[in-house]
Write a structure and sequence with these properties.
This protein is mainly α. The chain has three helices and no strands.
Length: about 90
């Protein structure tokens, strides 16, 4: 199907719907798979599906660096543990 004009109400509704679906998926995965698995997956989906970024090296780099940076700040620096998930035993 044809992609609507970037400023059109249809396009904005599609972006809002996709973002909502990603947030629901993230909540589901965060509880089950944990932060370090759910976050890169959802970041990659958001970058490709919502932001329409197609540079795979950038997407992969950001999807790995962002969760690691969050983990370093929260877990290592502040001592606040991030969700581990029920599917992952570590």
């Amino acid at each position: 199907s044809r992609v609507p004009d970037p400023g059109s109400p249809r396009r904005e509704l599609a972006i809002a719907g996709t973002t909502f679906a990603l947030l629901v998926l993230y909540a589901f995965l965060l509880d089950r798979a944990g932060f370090l698995i759910a976050t890169p997956l959802v970041v990659m989906l958001a970058m490709t599906g919502v932001l329409r970024i197609r540079r795979w090296v950038f997407i992969a780099s950001f999807a790995v660096a962002f969760p690691f940076g969050c983990w370093a700040v929260f877990n290592a620096l502040l001592g606040i543990p991030l969700p581990r998930g029920t599917w992952v035993p570590w």
